[in-house]
Amino acid sequence: MSTEPRSRAWLEVDAGALRRNLGTIRRSVGPEVRILPLVKANAYGLGIVEAARVMAAEDPWGFGVATVPEGETLRTAGVSHPIIVLSPVPRGAVRPALDQSLTLSVSDLETLRLLAEASDGRRPPFHLEIDTGMGRSGFDWRRVEEWFPPVATLADSSVRLEGVFTHFHSADASDASVTEQMERFRETVRRMGEMARARADGSAESRWVLHAANSAAAIGRPDTAEGLVRPGIFLYGGVAGPDRPHPEPVVSLRARVVLVRDVPPGSSLGYGATHRAARAERWATVGIGYGDGLPRVLGNRGNALIGGRRVPIVGRISMDLTVVDITDLGDPAPSVGSEVTFIGSDGTERITLEDVAHLAGTISYEILTGFTARMPRVWTDRREGYE
Ligand SMILES: *Cc1c(COP(=O)(O)O)cnc(C)c1O
Predict the structure, then answer these.
(1) What is the C-alpha separation between 359 and 351, in angstroms, rounded?
(2) Do the beta carbons of residue 368 and residue 354 sit within 8 Å?
């Protein structure tokens, strides 16, 4: 990087907190259960290579991604663990996945046939997804008698069924749906096992790695853990459901003041002039905007912290700049270069990721994955003091 990463706007990522959140998941599910950290979407926006490096030291089973290029990025960075591509892939991505030793998850017979064709006798592993109510991918749990025989035929010769999984639609809720989906999942796996045994492949079932739980289930419903859990958001500091234990915050979003101005009453501010000074005001222009991933809807709505005190965001947020009203901070006023916190702690004040997601009318996942390539990710380790 040509300029100091903390000179304008940046994300601070606490590697120690990430590690400790992984430890919290591990304690929740117990020592027998393996962990597949999800690092899709650039590790929820924080940096896939750094995140995988930090978590590789914690003995994960492997890593979960959504796309083949994400898996390729990990391989290029030297990650040698199993990498499961958890979303269905385009047909043309099957061969590249195999070339990079990525494990595909399979939701349809056509993909499995392509994988078998490309396998060249290597019998690559695959994970089979069962749709128990999520609806977007997976083999229909109600039709196992139809799809399992052709799956098993391919698995006998050219590919290897390594894992079987499902995904909950409401793991963060306290309703009965998790239990219902889990029953469907277990029933389908039981039927698959019966059919496999009838094909004289009696050992198959016991070899399958079963997995269902995302963060919310791993932390709140450890009875669904099976052999492996797939946490994502909790690792990165996102709260996984209203009644769940909270993770340690991992991300802070900070930027610097680039200009300070004193304006007379009636002065207009920003696109659409949606803010007008009601009195003599002091405005600080901050070097961050929606082009960095600060949600535009926070204009005239959100807050920031400067010098341990809370100030309002005034006017519309532009692509590159955001203005906060610092009139009430008095003197000495913040000046050019002062640090402004949009997510994170400053003194005793704190703005959480959830505060921002709530104000923006969305979820923490979208805030995290919305940070753009322009913003440096600065990995730190607050407790252990390495940078
Ligand atoms: C994203 C994803 C997860 C992780 O979900 P979180 O809610 O972030 O813990 C787990 N499994 C699958 C299939 C996913 O797509």
Answers:
(1) 11
(2) no
Residues 381, 374 contacting (CB under 8 angstroms) = no
86 lines ligand 1 (CB under 6 A): yes
Token pair listed for 134: 């999520």
Whether 232 is in the pocket of ligand 1, judged by its Cβ within 6 Å, is yes
For a substitution probing ligand 1, which of 44, 185, 230, 369 has the most ligand atoms within 8 Å of its CB? 230
Question: How would residue 206 be classed by pLDDT, with cut points 50, 70 and 90?
Answer: confident
**Residue of the CA atom closest to atom 4 of ligand 1:** 232
Tens-digit pLDDT profile for residues 254-283: 999 999 999 999 999 999 999 999 999 999
Would you say the C-alpha torsion 216, 220, 221, 227 has a positive or negative sign?
Answer: positive
DSSP string, 237-256: T---STTSPPPPP-EEEEEE
Residue positions counted in the chain? 387
Half-sphere exposure at residue 187, Cβ-oriented, CA atoms within 13 angstroms? 14
SS (H, E, C) 88-101: CCCHHHHHHHHHCC
Alpha helices in 137-263 (DSSP H): 144-157, 177-198, 204-207, 215-220
Per residue in 107-138, pLDDT (tens digit) is: 999 999 999 999 988 899 999 999 999 999 99
**What amino acid is encoded at 349 in this protein?**
E
Ligand 1 pocket member 286 (CB < 6 A): no
Q: Which atom of ligand 1 is nearest to the CA of 66?
A: 15
Is 386 annotated as catalytic?
A: no
What values do phi and psi take at 351, rounded to 5? Answer: -115, 120
The two tokens of residue 196 are 């496999």
Establish whether residue 230 lines the binding site of ligand 1, counting it when its CB lies within 6 angstroms of any ligand atom: yes
Exposed, middle or buried: residue 382 (CB in 10 Å: 0-12, 13-18, 19+)? middle
Are 366 and 353 spatial neighbours (Cβ–Cβ below 8 Å)? no
Ligand 1 lined by 38 (C-beta under 6 Å): yes
